[in-house]
Amino acid sequence: MRGRSKAAWLVLGLAGLLPGTAWAHAILLDSTPAEGATVPAGAAQLSLHFNSRLDAARSRLSLAHDGGDAGVLTLDGPGAPDVLAAQAKLEVGAYVLRWQVLSVDGHITRGLVHFTATAGSAP
Ligand SMILES: [Cu+2]
Predict the structure, then answer these.
(1) What are the tens digits of pLDDT across the range 18-27?
(2) CA of 32 to the centre of ligand 1 (A)
(3) Span from the CA of 33 to the centroid of ligand 1 (angstroms)
(4) pTM of the prediction?
(5) Sign of the Cα pseudo-torsion (8, 12, 18, 21, in order)
(6) Average of pLDDT values for 37-55?
(7) What is the distance in A from the centroid of ligand 1 to the CA of 20?
């Protein structure tokens, strides 16, 4: 019993020393649309690229239009482990994309991306 719990602590200690697995909160590296961008209204692919792998099942994106309530987006299926993506149909106006992600180190981070949709030149 005693030896067993000692071994468990040793494993925990070693896990903490593995490079790249611990202490890496998810930080947003870049996004589509980018912060402050103007994009054409209509169907859009939203994509957020982070510095670390995410637990997609415990991460979420929501989108608010012209100060309205934020609607939770359905995330695209499994893709790159450090990317969250979703489809949206954009109307003309100001958008706030809100992200909350759980990185593999167990820490939650969140933030906002602001962008504007304008009427494109319709065919
Ligand atoms: Cu962290």
Answers:
(1) 444 455 799 9
(2) 24
(3) 25
(4) 0.78
(5) positive
(6) 96
(7) 11
Type of residue found at 5: S
The letter for the amino acid at 110 is R
The proportion of the chain whose per-residue pLDDT surpasses 70, expressed as a percent, equals: 78
How far, in Å, is the centroid of ligand 1 from the Cα of 40? Answer: 35
| C-alpha of residue 55 to centroid of ligand 1, in Å | 12
Q: How far is the CA of 22 from the centre of ligand 1 (A)?
A: 7
Domains and CATH numbers, the chain: 24-118 (2.60.40.1220)
Q: How far is the CA of 107 from the centre of ligand 1 (A)?
A: 5
Distance CA 75, CA 54 (A): 13
Structure tokens at 31: 């996004």
Residue ranges with strand state E in the chain: 28-32, 37-40, 42-50, 60-65, 71-72, 83-90, 93-102, 108-118
